[in-house]
Amino acid sequence: MSLDYLCPQIPQIYENIYYNCNMTTLKDWTTPLPKVFKADLAQPTMSKIDQLLDRASDKFTAAEILANHEYFDDAVTRLFHGLLFCARALLYSKSTSLQDPDEIISAFNKEFVKPGTMDKDFGKLLKDAKTMAEKADFSLSFNVSEEKIKSMMRRAELFMEKVEDTISEEE
Description:
This protein is mostly helical and 171 residues long.
């Protein structure tokens, strides 16, 4: 199966690799690669904040798909991870990089909720989503209702908008 549709430059890249692998002397390995290949490597990358927000968006999309197929417990877990990615993006805008969910929630509340930058409801949303995700993942009898997940999804959308606005204001 060809992967050319994913990256149109793949044939050129493979040709460069094949060409260099068939060289017979060390001198030939130092032959510059064509400009097309160098240009592909020099493309600008997304900022860390943009990457975190994109991951959040992906998690929210996955939550929506799962909810639409009535996998509400799994949807709440994806939703929680999306919220974490949003909070991480906001924290990263303040040069704070954390991975642990408890540390992210604590730092988010300390840096943004207590000073009033973010509404207390968003701190509560993060905490509630964590609790629900843990129950959804580990409890045999816990079931998230469709109404509850839809409500959380609306609040998560508002959260992401507020995070993006706050980051834009800081720039």
